[in-house]
Specification:
Layout lengths: L1 H88 L1
């Protein structure tokens, strides 16, 4: 009987140890998030500005590409139109 009581006590102490580790991990995770919260609050506007600048540069580059391509397409249409007209009547 003493062996069963000892085994049960060992199991209970082991479960308490595991529960203690889980609770300590949860508390440390919460503390870590609370410590990093001011850093997140400071860095989010900076990240927003970086993303806005990135999008603005992307839009500007796309506008330049279209501004260069449109005259090239017009010149290509002017050069290709006699050949298209000739191939239509041939």
């Amino acid at each position: 009987m003493l062996t069963l009581i000892t085994l049960f006590t060992l199991a209970v102490v082991g479960m308490m140890f595991v529960i203690g580790i889980v609770i300590a991990g949860a508390v440390l995770k919460l503390a870590w998030h609370l410590v990093l919260l001011p850093l997140k609050i400071v860095l989010l506007p900076i990240l927003l500005v970086v993303v806005l600048v990135k999008v603005a540069v992307l839009i500007a580059v796309a506008a330049v590409v279209f501004a260069v391509l449109i005259p090239l397409l017009i010149i290509g249409a002017i050069v290709a139109s006699p050949f298209l007209i000739a191939s239509f009547f041939a």
